[in-house]
């Protein structure tokens, strides 16, 4: 028995590595231009200016291993990122207490309709049409921090059809994970189920139907995605 006037939609979840359990997702926060080399390739100053954020809908996270090429776009780019899943939250979280909120980590992609994003930027409009489309964030299984630890360094890379496109290291993030959590918590009350995508290294570029994407982060694992 329910008081809903329509059937409640299922809550998005991510698999937890090595188990049959899932992690229910509440919100997805993304940080822009968090690697200096990527900021430069996008035409911006890499100085350590305050981080800025945008959101993707929770159901943009997708663990199926496929990425359907979105409609109304002819230039869709890959961006490999470290995903941070929170097991608890709060407001005004201190940097030295931020990692206590982390449940685990995963390899993720921030897929971007670059043509639609560029049009929005030029018109001074929000980016959602370029960032928040259906299944815009392929994601691998979560690895709990209690077994993995908290990776502050490690190679991050992405290949398309076996050819290396992106490479960097987690220690090249301008704003580190504890800092991102602390800054976000000044603007939003964070909660269990929130996921943070932490930015991408340089080398972003287009994908095409039929491409095979292989994303890796040392110590965390691999994510394989077929573009359809």
TrEMBL record:
Residue ranges annotated for the Fumarylacetoacetase-like C-terminal domain, each copy included: 28-227
Keywords from the named record? Hydrolase, Metal-binding
The reply to whether Hydrolase figures as a keyword in the UniProt entry is yes
Q: What InterPro entries does the database record attribute to this sequence?
A: Fumarylacetoacetase-like_C (IPR011234), Fumarylacetoacetase_C_sf (IPR036663)
Q: Which residues cross the membrane?
A: none
In Pfam terms, one family for this protein is: FAA_hydrolase
Q: Name one GO molecular function term.
A: acetylpyruvate hydrolase activity
Q: What is this protein called?
A: FAA hydrolase family protein
